[in-house]
């Protein structure tokens, strides 16, 4: 289940806004009462606070965003350091090999995005 922050981010983007520009105008809160996260404050100029149905409509897209973020983090560690990547590229250029490309292709095929 996608978290509220992700769904709000998607709602903002769908309405030509960004979290970065609006973060001071929105407060998400959780009162630790078992009811979960909710919108405490919404002061986004020119955009109404989303309804529960509007937020729920971003569930599938939110799940995809969150799954892909985990995949991106995994890929980032498997791609190795930039120094190691540069060494592979240098050796490929020098030796006429495709080690770097093959490595990147393997990381991507081992960690496909949705």
How would you describe this protein?
This protein has 114 residues and is mainly alpha-helical. 58% of the residues lie in helices and 10% in strands. The chain has six helices and two strands. It has helices spanning 4-14, 19-22, 52-56, 59-78, 82-95, 99-110; strands at 26-30, 37-42. Strands 1-2 form a two-stranded antiparallel ribbon. Strand 1 (26-30) and strand 2 (37-42) form a beta hairpin. The radius of gyration is 20 Å and the shape is elongated.
How would you sum up the major sheet? 2 strands, antiparallel
Question: Overall mean pLDDT score?
Answer: 96
Provide a count of the helices. 6
Give the tally of structural domains: 2
Low-confidence stretches: none
Class from secondary-structure proportions: mainly alpha
CATH topology (fold) name of the largest domain: Phenylalanyl-tRNA Synthetase, Chain B, domain 1
Helix and strand element order: HHEEHHHH
Q: What is the overall shape?
A: elongated
Give the CATH architecture of the largest domain: 2-Layer Sandwich
**Rg, Cα atoms, Å:** 20 Å
CATH class identity of the largest domain: Alpha Beta
Helix content: 55-70%
Amino- and carboxy-terminal Cα gap: 15 Å
Count of beta strands: 2
What percentage of amino acids are in beta strands? 5-15%
């Amino acid at each position: 289940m996608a978290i509220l922050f992700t769904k709000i981010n998607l709602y903002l983007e769908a309405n030509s806004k960004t979290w970065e520009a609006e973060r001071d105008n929105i407060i998400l809160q959780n009162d630790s009462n078992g009811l979960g996260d909710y919108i405490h404050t919404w002061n986004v100029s020119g955009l109404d606070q989303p309804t529960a149905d509007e937020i729920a409509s971003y569930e599938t897209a939110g799940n995809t965003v969150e799954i892909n973020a985990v995949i991106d983090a995994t890929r980032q560690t498997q791609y190795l350091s930039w120094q190691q990547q540069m060494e592979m590229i240098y050796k490929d250029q020098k030796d006429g090999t495709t080690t770097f490309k093959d490595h990147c292709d393997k990381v991507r095929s081992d960690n496909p995005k949705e």
